[in-house]
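Journal club side-thread
Mid-discussion, someone asked how the predicted structure for our own chain would compare to the paper's figures. Pasting it here so we can look after the session.
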Amino acid sequence: MDDPRWLSPQEQRAWRTHLAAHRLLSHQLDRELHEAGLSLNDYEILVHLSESPRRRMRMSDLADATVQSRSRLSHQIARMEDAGLVTREHCEDDRRGTFAVLTGRGWETIQRVAGDHVEGVRRHFIDRLTADQVAALEAIYRPIVDHLQRVRAGKSA
């Protein structure tokens, strides 16, 4: 086995700063959503469903979109069903397929909390950066996201 390619001090600082920023930002946004009775995971699911045709998605596609295992998503959807935010429907053309469907209450919830959530994203993230830094951040993360999506799909290592 080859020796690992250890991170330089600057690479280590960059990596740890990225981890800290991601964790702190996710924690803060999750905390703010909890005030509205949602978790960050709930919100992400509501967003995907609200932006989908007929406000529904196949469970397998929703799991992929939210980067969750099928079983974890199933448990999450069950909790959201109990809260009246979503429901499940069987797929007419595939007996094994199931859709997650946004309910009227789920739609009202996303409409009610979206503005405050976006304001939190702006306050804690976007407004801390210049327009050039936002553009650079997108350019920096795009190849990482593309690579990891290919890895997840089993198309590249």
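Post-session note: The beta strands are 56-58, 86-91, 94-102.
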